[in-house]
Amino acid sequence: MSSPRGRFITLEGGEGSGKSTQAKRLAERLRSHGLDVVLTREPGGSPGAEAVRAALLGGAVKPYGSDVEALLFAAARADHVDRTIAPALARGQWVICDRFIDSTRVYQGAVGQVEAPLLNALEQVAIGPARPDLTLLLDISSEAGLARAAARAQGQVGDRFEREGMAFHQAVRTAFLELAGADPERCVVVDAGRQPDMVAIDIAKAVRARFPEALSETVPA
Ligand code: TMP
């Protein structure tokens, strides 16, 4: 008998929004209630995609323009979906992914101005049926997010995107909010400017609300 498809949750947001911390906390929480969870990230999440991550975030691809960056994000995603996400979902596992398609739609699409038909085609090829069931948008002001990211970097130069100016990061925030507003069935906006414990509580509530049949017995509010 084939196992039921697992659940696919993505976390999105600008720099310093706390996605990675919250993704880990959510994975621990679900595991502590007996669920089988795969925690992964983009760009990356498979050996091939991690290699592409280094080129993209180091800035080596930037001179070729947003279209080429979009191609490489899609190539990394295709490998990640094939090797990590789709097999896990097919096994019935829960997949939590730190960034996914919405980051491309925002960074390369809305802000990088790659045309929608190209992005849509790349997305379709890269992910096939592996669409997120729930996307948590961690929203924080660009100023606060960049301050957090700078504190975390401890004086080291940020990656290719962190090095962009304030207007870029404000455009990223606006685009994420627009995208989430246009797809309320899938996306939940969480105020990430608060203490991590408060953010984690809202995330747990959103997950329970979206998957009541799976979690009502196992994850308290
Ligand atoms: P992060 O791992 O610190 O979140 O950094 C990943 C960076 O890559 C972040 O600045 C957003 C960017 N990015 C894109 O531009 N497009 C994408 O599709 C993904 C997944 C990330």
Written overview of the protein:
- This protein has helices at 19-32, 47-58, 66-90, 101-111, 116-127, 142-153, 166-182, 196-210, 212-215, and strands at residues 8-13, 37-41, 94-98, 134-139, 187-191.
- The chain has 221 residues and is an alpha/beta fold.
- A five-stranded parallel sheet has the order 2-3-1-4-5, with helices on both faces.
- The protein starts with 7 loop residues before the first strand and ends in a 6-residue tail after the last helix.
- Bound molecules: thymidine-5'-phosphate.
- The site of thymidine-5'-phosphate has 10 residues, from α4.
User: In CATH terms, what is the architecture?
Assistant: 3-Layer(aba) Sandwich
Q: What percent of residues are in strands? A: 5-15%
Distance from N terminus to C terminus (CA atoms, Å) equals 33 Å
- Low-confidence blocks of residues: none
Small molecules bound: thymidine-5'-phosphate
- The average pLDDT value, as a whole number, equals 94
Q: Biggest β-sheet: count, sense, barrel?
A: 5 strands, parallel
Structural class estimated from helices and strands: alpha/beta
Indicate the percent of residues in helices: 55-70%
Query: Can you identify the CATH class?
Result: Alpha Beta
Oligomer: single chain
The radius of gyration computed from the alpha-carbon positions, rounded to a whole number of angstroms, is: 17 Å
Strand adjacency order, main sheet: 2-3-1-4-5
CATH topology: Rossmann fold
Number of strands: 5
CATH homologous superfamily (4th level) name? P-loop containing nucleotide triphosphate hydrolases
H-E string: EHEHHEHHEHHEHH
Number of helices: 9
**What count of domains describes the coordinates?**
1
Shape call: globular
